[in-house]
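Thread: quick sanity check before group meeting

JM: Hey all, I'm pulling together slides for Thursday and realized we never actually wrote out the predicted structure for the chain we discussed last week. Dropping the sequence here so it's in one place. If anyone has concerns about the input, flag it before I start.
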Amino acid sequence: MSRNLRIEPNDNELSPEANGVLSKMLNNPDTDYVKAVDLCAVCENDSLRTIKKALSELTDKGYLLRIGNTYAVNKVRITQMKLA
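JM (edit): ok, ran it. Output follows.
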């Protein structure tokens, strides 16, 4: 029986919104490389404005890379996170 492991961000300085967006992007293969508007469809309880603010925070802290309108998980940072 396999156990589903999740990657959990361990940065207490992230806002709750950024923490949630990062967790979603890390643990859902469909969202590790995504545009803000597409991520908004996955995070139904958050507005596009909230998603963009969280993505900006995550980019500023090096968790995400931005290529045009697309955000991608900075996979180098994953090694600094814990499995839950």
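AS: nice. The beta strands are 7-8, 33-35, 64-67, 70-73, 82-83. The first strand starts at residue 7 and ends at 8.
JM: adding both to the slides.
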